[in-house]
Design goal:
By secondary structure, the chain is of the alpha+beta class. The chain folds into three domains: 39 residues; 63 residues, Alpha-Beta Complex (Type Iii Antifreeze Protein Isoform Hplc 12); 86 residues. It is built from four helices and nine strands, in the order H-H-E-E-E-E-E-H-E-E-E-H-E. A five-stranded antiparallel beta sheet has the order 5-8-7-6-9. Strands 1-2 form a two-stranded antiparallel ribbon.
Length: 198
């Protein structure tokens, strides 16, 4: 009888401590269940592993997979690293940034195309042709186009300014076939270049 009373007295004395311990166990169990559920719901997405400058061709080392909650995943997100490798960054991409179909332009490295730097006769023209624009390029000494409807993949920043900011550069990076690259290179050796949108 005395032993039972001692146990009851002990429980009463420590009831607050026991209640706190039991509450902690309940909270921990709840959090564990939520965490397990959240982990199962995460979506694998492609993110930049490091800074990728505008106009750069994406390599294996530039991207990695990360897991994100569905509500944090934007439309057009890339979910396979292979879909990014070999494509060109249309604008600077910061480390950790989620890549979407609008982050990268052009075909893959296996499509036979190359990215060529074009210096224009007027820096203001580059501002009219942001990445993703189709342009027709002319030598300023001829009324005939050198190439037509080629894709602008980047407008690099001028004077070593940040790769992510707005540019006043007179240079465009365009994705062209090797034949188009040859025609442009020959034209640029004797003339400055200008463009028309489209």
């Amino acid at each position: 009888m005395r032993a039972s009373r001692r146990i009851i007295d002990l429980v009463r004395w420590h009831r607050r401590g026991l209640a706190a311990v039991l509450a902690g166990i309940a909270v921990f169990s709840g959090l564990s269940a939520v965490t397990r559920g959240d982990t199962a719901d995460l979506v694998a997405v492609v993110v930049a592993a490091r800074l990728v400058p505008a106009g750069s061709t994406v390599t294996d080392g530039d991207v990695r997979l990360a897991r994100m909650p569905p509500q944090a995943v934007p439309d057009g997100v890339l979910t396979n690293v292979a879909d990014a490798v070999g494509r060109v960054a249309g604008a600077g991409i910061r480390a950790g940034q989620i890549l979407t179909d609008l982050s990268l332009v052009g075909g893959t490295a296996g499509d036979g195309s190359v990215v060529l730097s074009i210096k224009l006769d007027n820096p203001e023209l580059a501002a009219l042709a942001p990445p993703g624009t189709r342009v027709t390029l002319y030598a300023t000494t001829s009324a005939e186009p050198v190439v037509a409807h080629v894709l602008v993949v980047a407008v690099p920043a001028s004077g070593g300014g940040g790769v992510l900011g707005a540019s006043t550069s007179s240079v465009l990076l365009v994705r062209v076939t090797t034949d188009e690259a040859g025609r442009l290179t020959r034209a640029m050796s004797t003339s400055t270049m200008t463009l028309a949108i489209g």
